[in-house]
Amino acid sequence: MCDEKKIEIKIIEDLIEAISKILSREEIERCMPKNLRVSCKIYQGICIVSSSPEFVNEGISQLKVEPLFMGKIVGVSLNNKVYPSPWLLEDLYECIGEIRSAVEAEQQGVKAFLYGNDLLVASVGKIYGRFRRGDIIAIIDPIDRKVIGVARAMLNPSEIAIARSRGKQSDLAAKISLT
Q: Which residues pair with 172 in a beta bridge?
């Protein structure tokens, strides 16, 4: 097996491992997209994991072209670390019928987050499920309850509650820079 194929397999395995902190094995088998494709030909150090229906894959192979990526982006690998995409988390939450490992941002936090800022404790409106410090979590919009981004938890749910009770509203709850 060539090195490129080994890298692609490792990226998919790492993506599934990241999702396994949120979903059970049965939920992963039921809800995770099946036709995953990895492309590392866009920028050095960045790989995109996408999912597309089988008929699209067959059509592309008949054209004898190698697309950069196609379908829905379900993950990204940055500097050998793999992160699920907001679209994948949205689809998984819909499949299992609940949001897990996520924080709902207050409206001011949504705007700041979408402009590239970290999420502060003051901007956390609601916590969904359990997660640990350092875990990848979804950031949820309070209006439509959609996943607007992915971040690394800087505090676990109980630490967020403690920081709020002590008035430490400026503590980081989630860090947008994933590296």
A: 120
| CATH numbers and ranges of domains, the chain | 3-95 (no CATH), 100-175 (2.30.130.10)
User: What is the DSSP annotation of 65-101?
Assistant: ---S--SEEEEEEETTEEEE-HHHHHHHHHHHTS--S
CB 154 within 8 A of CB 133: yes
- Burial call 129-148: b when 16+ CB within 10 Å, e when fewer: eebeeebbbbbbbeeeeebb
How does pLDDT run across 33-64, given as a tens digit for each residue? 988 988 887 778 788 898 876 555 555 556 66
Tens-digit pLDDT profile for residues 128-177: 999 999 999 999 999 999 999 999 999 999 999 888 888 777 777 888 76
Contacts of 118 (CB under 8 A, 6+ apart): 151, 154, 172, 173, 174, 175, 176, 177
